[in-house]
């Protein structure tokens, strides 16, 4: 190893230690706490993070020391009907300026240090803010930051003889520590930015890829259980493994096991003898690939088990109940051979429900004592519409989507990357008596409603884009008032 390469490696290791110390004070603060922050905004942020995890991270380099940096600025405007428990159907309008800066340093393919920070300036219409502050500055905070080590290359270059233990070049082993995006399967059970570590083992000769991880929620994350005495500082640990097999042409089956451990410290003065623990485990099995020519498929099933605690309003002290819940997500994408790149998608999503629950997430309002808890509750993300955006619990979701690029190939470079998409959703309860995540769906019926979503994306030039999204929910029989609920957003994004 050359002196320059050694100094670079040492610098990266020092920066990685600094990163570990930085995670606590730089834990991000959300725009608004979960009890007031509507699910529509949470889902949009989850969608952004999912896209960023697969498109915005620099790849490996074999060219010695490499450093790069950049960022983007997004100016957004939102107007929507607040579905959160504290929103009470209020229409809210606000504007948000979001700046994210990233830096990446690498030594060949052995060491990588990546950091991304963000800051937001928020401006609400009068009376529309979540906490009374009509103008607010959030950050700067750490969005993601991690250190990655290629353990195979490290062993071979260490001079300690460890390299002789590596069987072949078809063997790859990497470790990553820090604030990073972690998911299992297609993201149905877990899809979050967490603080922790993961190890990725790839056996190319047999087509196996194994990822194992252990991580915690960020210190200022809001908890799913908003009946906790302190719901704004979630303390949950996730560990598990995801195994994927690539040995079947055009198919990628996967299997995972996930454990979620609840460490929330909860003492309620209103319910002093209540246990709020929710300890869950997940077994997932699925596959993705090409069904036939131009048709891609995806399918995943999840079984949730563990223990929850009953509603203390019925019996206090409350008692421990067994969890027996299920979820599935499956879909087809059809890509038509045409200049405008048309595509059609059909999806079915399902999360089991419990007829006893008044809340799909909370202990208070949860399951009845001495009965199995059939309500599916996970920590993942699946898109369920702009306007309703419900959690996948006690719900069947049928979705049909279509999109195309109408001006592609028309010899106008400014319109070539202009796309339109329309989606239709139909929502139907699993149990008529049970709740869904929208607190206003109070009637014991199964027809939640239907929704039409429209989105426009236009990449004007390589570093400037425009996105417009509109959703309209036609409320069904579960609502006292069968009103029209709207969601509108527009975003201009500039990358640099």
Q: Which helices and strands occur, and which strands form pairs?
A:
Layout: H1 3-22, H2 39-55, E1 65-81, E2 91-107, E3 111-124, E4 135-150, H3 151-157, E5 171-183, E6 191-203, E7 208-216, E8 236-245, E9 254-262, E10 279-292, E11 295-309, E12 320-335, E13 343-351, E14 395-404, E15 418-429, E16 447-461, E17 464-475, E18 484-495
Explained architecture:
By secondary structure, the protein is mainly beta. It has a single domain (3-495), classed as Beta Barrel (Porin), CATH 2.40.160. The chain is 9% helix and 47% strand. It is built from three helices and 18 strands. It has an 18-stranded antiparallel barrel. Strand 6 (191-203) and strand 7 (208-216) form a beta hairpin. The protein is globular, with a radius of gyration of 24 Å. The model is unreliable at 1-7 and 20-36 (pLDDT under 50).
